[in-house]
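This part of the workshop introduces the protein records we will be handling. As an example, a complete record with its sequence and its structure tokens follows.
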Amino acid sequence: MTPDHTTRPRAHDFQQRPLSPAEARVLGTLMEKARTVPDSYPLTLNSLVTGCNQKSSREPVMQLPDALVVEALENLRQLHLVFESSGGRVTRHEHNFMRAVGVPEQSAVLLGMLMLRGPQTAGELRLNTERWYKFLDIASVDAFLEELQDRPPEKGGPLVVKLPRAPGAREQRWAHLLCGPVDASALVTSAASGASGATEDEVIALTRRVAQLENTVALLQDQLQNLHEQLGLSQPGQG
């Protein structure tokens, strides 16, 4: 039977420990699909694996085998970050991030996007989360990020960090800390090398265009996934 939501752990029951990259990808994917394909949520294992391994809206792109996703789910269940629900033909999985970690909806959206797409500026986060939550402006994104960075020790400590400005960049990027401390210098160097050979305005325009295209591809993938769920078909490439 589906678990009684009233018995789920309250905020701050989550005992924080660094998540593995696979656990972060599984958790972020559940958080994404809860908002983008609610008709197919909670997710089956097949749908979850497909979402984890999709090539759009993911940085880095991963190829997680079923066994590793199952292991990540079990570890996340022990942290009260994920729950199983049954009652249909197959077991389904859902996240419990907001209640377990003790953050508001907007903060959860930002953390989920950072887990899926890596370090981003506030402007990029506002654009990339449009299908999840529509922030009023970049200032509101910054405000929630600052709150996550200033999170007091009694609530588990900071969950994001603002990275040093990359050479030639106009804005600083943010990174999540759910997988532990980040190597800020390496991330800044990576961002700088990726932008070499182009002007800042060109990089900004290209980033915006890529984000829009990725959102379109992700929407089409979600619609296809939803159709397969409704028809009871296996996901493409899974036989």
About this structure: The longest strand covers residues 82-85. Residues 1-13, 195-199 have pLDDT under 50 and may be disordered.
